[in-house]
Structure formats: structure tokens, C-alpha cells
């Protein structure tokens, strides 16, 4: 049986046709910048479903916002405020006349890692997905923890400076978003007016001094977030994913920044437990794979 798996991100929609063992047979990406209404969002997914000849297994959705995975209700719409209050599961199922499931994107990544990635047999772990924000997911006692109100893992809005009142400038998404890198480079280099992540890492791989300094600073930010989470939860593994996680220098510098924390005085004397820092085995496909497993298992994970 085949499934259509869809990952609705901050500005685009990734998709994949999968079999029931999560093998991807075909995948791609569509922009969503032009979508301004709930009807428009539903139409995009409906069109994709028809393009794949209506896979009999139905549609598995990974969504970039807070929601109730059991009934499909979107709380705040996430990156698409016009989706707030809509029941994506019911509305899409009615439109496409097929079975539909919906899960938060961070949770989907965690499910993928639990099923076939680097959290297999892990009792307690945290997944950090870096994108336009910071999605988190918690694995406690071998199960996905969604929280009392289905909001567990809303890491983007964590306060980064405890001596400053909370604001949009004082939240984790601003300092650990993947956009931070290119934005910082443009701000610090008068000759560059626009840049994306691919261009940034091209400069990093050429040992551009400004890019390297920004990457070092960025990895310190991410490592600090990971350290704070570990102090709170004391897990076995911290698993980092998102498109940036495939970059070798990001991996190297993040591990260095994380290790550096633990040799800082007086931590080496206090000796707090250190989680193993790993990276998502499914890389940028983690949300798609996790959505399919969530769908196939009827949402019980």
C-alpha cells in the first residue's frame, strides 16, 4: 500500500510517495508563499494527492504548528495563522475522500527517529529540528510526550536572556533559526545585500572568516539551548535535525561548542550528566517519514 506524506513547512511543502515500510519512491517540494487562505492550503494538498493518482493509504501530514494530533484541530496555525481553528484532518479527509492524519512537525521527526533512526531503543531523548524556527519533541519513558495541552516542545519561544523581558527579540527562534546565519552575514558585510543558507555554507567551506565567526557564534547558541534542555530533562540523547544538520562543518562546530560547555569551571567538578549529541538519521526527510509512521499506526506512538 502506498501513502502520500506531506510536510508543511514555514514557506514550502515537501512531499513524498511512500510504501508501508517508509521507503520513499518519489519526492519533491512546492512553494507555499502564494497560499493565503485555508481553502488555498487544502487545494494545494488535494492537487498533490490527485497528481499521485490518489494513493490508497491516504495522506499523512506533518504540520509546522501546535495541534491536537488525535482529532486534527490546529490551535494557532503556526506559520500560517489563517489555518488557526481549522480541523485539517477532517477538512482534508472530506475534500480528498481518503484517510488523513495530522501531527506536529517536531513530533514527526521524533517518531521517525524512534522507528528507524538514532532514537531506536532510546528511553528518554529530545529531538531539535532547526528550520525557520526551532521545533522540539520529547521522548519520555519510550513514548512521545505531547504535554497536557499538546504544546510540549514549543522551543521557538523559549526566552534566551533571563535578565531581559520577553519579546520577539528575546526568544530562541531568533538566535537558533537557520535564517540567523545568512541574516547575520548580510548585516556584518556591507558588500553583500542578499544571501541564503546555501550561499552561506559555500563561504564557510571556503573558510571565509566572517562566515566562520558567525557559524561559531551560532553553534554556541544552539549548544546552549541543548544544554539547558539537558539540565531540565536529563535524557540519554539530544538528536538534531533540519536541513542544516547535513552540513559537516555545522556538525563539527556544534559538537565542539556542546563539549566546551562541560569543561567550563565549575561544571567539570559538579559533573552533570551529559546527553549524547547525535543527528537525525533521516536528515531532511525525518518529518515525512515520521508522518507516515504516525499515520500507519493510527496516531498511537
CATH topology name of the largest domain: Nucleotidyltransferase, domain 5
Radius of gyration, in Å, reads 19 Å
- Euclidean distance between termini CA atoms: 20 Å
Widest β-sheet, arrangement of strands: 3-2-1-4-7
- Based on the structure given, which CATH architecture of the largest domain is correct? 2-Layer Sandwich
The CATH class assignment of the largest domain is Alpha Beta
- Give the H and E element order: EEEHEEEHEHEEEHHHHEHHEH
What fraction, in percent, of the residue positions are helical?
Answer: 25-40%
Number of domains: 2
| Number of strand segments | 12
State the low-pLDDT regions, or none. none
Mean pLDDT over the full residue set: 93
Shape: globular
CATH superfamily of the largest domain: ATPase, nucleotide binding domain
**Broad structural category:** alpha/beta
Largest sheet report: 5 strands, mixed
The fraction of residues assigned to DSSP E strands is 15-25%
Please report the number of helical segments. Answer: 10
Amino acid at each position: 500500500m502506498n501513502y502520500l506524506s506531506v510536510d508543511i513547512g514555514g514557506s514550502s511543502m515537501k512531499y513524498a510517495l511512500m510504501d508501508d515500510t517508509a521507503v520513499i519512491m518519489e519526492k519533491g517540494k512546492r512553494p507555499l508563499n502564494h497560499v493565503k487562505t485555508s481553502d488555498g492550503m487544502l487545494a494545494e494538498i488535494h492537487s498533490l494527492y490527485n497528481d499521485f493518482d490518489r494513493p490508497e493509504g491516504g495522506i499523512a501530514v506533518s504540520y509546522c504548528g501546535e495541534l491536537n494530533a488525535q482529532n486534527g484541530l490546529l490551535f494557532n496555525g503556526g506559520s500560517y495563522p489563517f489555518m488557526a481553528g481549522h480541523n485539517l484532518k477532517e477538512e482534508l479527509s472530506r475534500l480528498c475522500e481518503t484517510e488523513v492524519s495530522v501531527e506536529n512537525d517536531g513530533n514527526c521527526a521524533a517518531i521517525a527517529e524512534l522507528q528507524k533512526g538514532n532514537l531506536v531503543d532510546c528511553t528518554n531523548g529530545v529531538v531539535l529540528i532547526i528550520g525557520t524556527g526551532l521545533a522540539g519533541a520529547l521522548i519520555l519513558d519510550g513514548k512521545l510526550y505531547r504535554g497536557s495541552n499538546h504544546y510540549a516542545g514549543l522551543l521557538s519561544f523559549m526566552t534566551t536572556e533571563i535578565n531581559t523581558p520577553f519579546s520577539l527579540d528575546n526568544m530562541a527562534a531568533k538566535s537558533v533559526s537557520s535564517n540567523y546565519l545568512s541574516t547575520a552575514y548580510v548585516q556584518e558585510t556591507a558588500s553583500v545585500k542578499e544571501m541564503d543558507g546555501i550561499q552561506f555554507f559555500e563561504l564557510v567551506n571556503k573558510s571565509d572568516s566572517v562566515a566562520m565567526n558567525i557559524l561559531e557564534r551560532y553553534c554556541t547558541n544552539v549548544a546552549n539551548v541543548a544544554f539547558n534542555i539537558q539540565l531540565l530533562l536529563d535524557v540519554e540523547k539530544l538528536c538534531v535535525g533540519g536541513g542544516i544538520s547535513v552540513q559537516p562543518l555545522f556538525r563539527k562546530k556544534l559538537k565542539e561548542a556542546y563539549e566546551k560547555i562541560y569543561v567550563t569551571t565549575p561544571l567539570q567538578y559538579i559533573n552533570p550528566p551529559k546527553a549524547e549529541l547525535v543527528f537525525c538519521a533521516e536528515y531532511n526527510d525525518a518529518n515525512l517519514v515520521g508522518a507516515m509512521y504516525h499515520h500507519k499506526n493510527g496516531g498511537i506512538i
